[in-house]
Design goal:
Number of domains: 1
Number of helices: 5
Largest sheet: none
Strand content: under 5%
Oligomer: single chain
Radius of gyration: 16 Å
Number of strands: 0
Length: 123
């Protein structure tokens, strides 16, 4: 039960932060979802840092990992919104934005996870 509560609390904070970031940065005029993109990239970096540090050190325990990686990062990042936004690009015929958003999200997201884990080696 404690594990569920940790994931619930972390996920709640992550979801609220993602919502606020989306409200601030997603632009309905040009349709470019900068807030979603930034949340997914930052979340990828955070999970790389958190899990990299947890693997390196015994300071981060299982409860903290559940709260931060599973909960917060899980709530902060969003594959479903990413998929929906890509659906909207395709529906409107904006194949360039679809391709750029998809490729940039995957490539930069993977690099952020790997970069976070790499940076932890120096801490």
């Amino acid at each position: 039960m404690k594990n569920l509560l940790l994931v619930f609390v972390g996920g709640g904070f992550g979801s609220v932060l993602r919502f606020l970031l989306g409200k601030w940065l997603n632009n309905s005029d040009n349709g470019i979802p900068y807030g979603t993109f930034l949340a997914n990239i930052l979340g990828s970096l955070f999970i790389g840092l958190i899990l990299g540090y947890a693997a390196k050190s015994e300071i981060v325990n299982q409860n903290q990992t559940l709260l931060l990686a599973t909960g917060f990062c899980g709530g902060f990042t969003t594959f479903s919104t990413f998929a929906y936004e890509n659906h909207m690009f395709l529906k409107s015929g904006d194949f360039t934005s679809f391709a750029l958003y998809t490729i940039a999200s995957f490539v930069i997201g993977f690099l952020a996870v790997f970069g976070g884990m790499y940076l932890i080696k120096f801490i």
